[in-house]
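URGENT: need a sanity check before tomorrow's submission.

F., can you look over the AAA family ATPase record below? I want to be sure the sequence and structure line up before it goes out.
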Amino acid sequence: MSSETPHTDTNAIVACTVSRDVQNFDLLIEDMESAMGENWGDLGFAEALAFFNQPEAESLSFIALAIDGNDEDNLVLMGEIITQAKTRDIKVILIAEDVTPASLHQLLRQGADEFVPYPLPEQELQAAIERVTTPEPEPEEAIANPHQLQSGSAREGAVIVCQGLAGGSGSTTLAVNLAWELALLSDHEQPSVCLLDLDMQHGSVATYLDLPRREIVMEMLGQIDEMDAEMFGQALLSFQDKLQVLTAPSEMVPLEFFTPDDIERLIAMARSHFDFVVIDLPRTLVQWSECVLNRAHVYFSLIELDMRSAQNALRMKRALQSEDLPFEKLRFTLNRAPKFTDLSGKSRVKRMAESLGISIDLQLPDGGKPVVQSCDHGLPLAVSAAKNPLRKEIAKLALSLHELGQQDVAA
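Structure tokens as predicted:
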């Protein structure tokens, strides 16, 4: 590939790699050749800015901006390349190796459309190219969220957090079904319940409600400091016109990508427009976990009756108490709890709580296979298995939270 002015013999250039030295990204060269054939070229950083002003650049569809840790001293130049590309309606795919989350955050906020880690996962560059070159249909966007959020809203919604302390402990199942039950109880102005999936890497809320993961979510998250009611509302999806949902992004995002101020702003925006904000958290503790804990009115920590849950609950207790964080906010919730007639199981629950020095405030029954089937089909239990014992218990929990909310409003 050429550097000063990329060209081919027969076809116009529709894409360019931009890097300090493209030979440092040999996998990128292979994937670009596979995806674009001969219709691409490569440029240095300074050369890219000059090339944007040439007539040949008018045919550019996207650039692949490839950087590594050595380029972090030139973030201003990287940002200028992204800005100049965006003013010419050229999409930007950011390819990064050994770059800090803070630098990624800065470049994505400046307008990069996609982020792909290097070494490139198989077929990931091709998928990113398809995403940036395929416009999102506007009509579907309008249908997805018919509710327009009003700026200056003065609500102060209750924040309900669900976090599993062990894999498969049911955090997302509780968050999704509790949010839906609360939505069913809300008879006044819609929308009143918002569900936020803050598990940015493995979040499954979209799967459990059969909702698409859209690029606009990452666009909004990438510029939270500029977020307003309109931008936030556009990122939400409506589930059956009752529940508003912010899904996890379509791509995995480093959890350190977000600062406590980012999460604080996101929660504050949701609270100002909804009566209840239900948050599904990742199991991992990150720098913004304290922000969520402090904002939470109710914090459900889900465990099971097994050794891993006991050990993780103890670790969580020690971690919060060592930092003088409000450990007392945690309401330990035992999922797949023993039946009422299982005296041996009840005894084990009591011993577990005593040995850990915690109170198990809520016990959820085992809903069996219908729960898994409901999640796979993308439907809340109230829709797919209304008489399921787990659904009944979550409905009772939602009713008690709703009544408490009404009492607070009256007070």
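My own read: The mean pLDDT is 86. The domain at 158-410 is CATH 3.40.50.300 (Rossmann fold). If you see anything odd, call me.
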